[in-house]
Specification:
alpha+beta, Ig-like_dom, 2 domains, Ig_sub, binds 2-acetamido-2-deoxy-beta-D-glucopyranose, Immunoglobulin-like, V-set and immunoglobulin domain containing 2, 4-stranded antiparallel sheet, 6-stranded mixed sheet
Length: about 270
Amino acid sequence: MAYGHIVLTACILFQYFDVVRSWQAVVVKPSVFVRSGSSAELTCTYDTHASEGFTLEWRYTAPGTPAFQAKRVRRTAVFRVSYNKPPHLLTSMSCLTQVLYYNGRLYWVNSWEGRMALVQNPPVSGVASVRIISAETSDTGLYICEVTNPNDWSGSGQGLINLTVLTPPSVPVCQLQGNPYTGNDVTLSCHSSHGLPTPIYSWHREPNAAPLPPDSFIEDQRTGSLMLHNLSEAFAGTYTCKASNELGQAACSVTLRMTCEYNTHSSNIAEY
Ligand SMILES: *[C@@H]1O[C@H](CO)[C@@H](O)[C@H](O)[C@H]1NC(C)=O
Ligand SMILES: *[C@@H]1O[C@H](CO)[C@@H](O)[C@H](O)[C@H]1NC(C)=O
């Protein structure tokens, strides 16, 4: 147990010093927010003189992947680079190589060619930045800019960039849950599958609709639900939900048609 503790401490210290060293050699803009469809520049500069064996690698990890996992994969990847394996071998579940500049050659991996451009090409004069030409929601995640310069290990390192692609809410789906009988409760739900920042939802009735009785509804703008309590004819009509965030809004509607409880129940009663 004590041994495990020492190993853990050593790992943490190693990670810690690794980060400090990286920050000195490679400097990134750590947080980038862009609108979907616009170009996203991932800024990364380094302070070393590119020479024999200089390697620049950009990798992507999906949101939710711990950064230390990406670091571990990085070490494996660097090792492989020194064996000059083709770039497609540098991929793993959690961490995907996108761009590799090695031995004076540029490799684009997967579908990134044509979607991404180097800001400086060849990237050998201190600027390793890339530009995503038209950012998509699925581009959100962590990007690792890594520079390896065997002739100057103190000039090697990596930087982590957190890219968030903001997007207006997608057209929400409106649904009615429950049976709209007189005296019953029902819930109207509304949800956009996409949208960042997370949309908020608001429900409205038609402009000429009669007001609902007081305390007869509960609206949750975060989840998009509207609970209607103790239904009566006054509740009938069309309800519109608007999903909105800083980038835009979208709406859907649901029509509530009151059903007579008596009719439906009478068929049940006939069974007894
Ligand atoms: C990346 O940025 C987003 C938006 O600010 C944030 O929610 C997320 O936690 C960040 N991820 C990491 C790993 O820092
Ligand atoms: C439900 O609404 C009716 C009028 O439509 C009212 O008479 C009744 O007291 C209400 N019941 C409850 C439990 O609020």
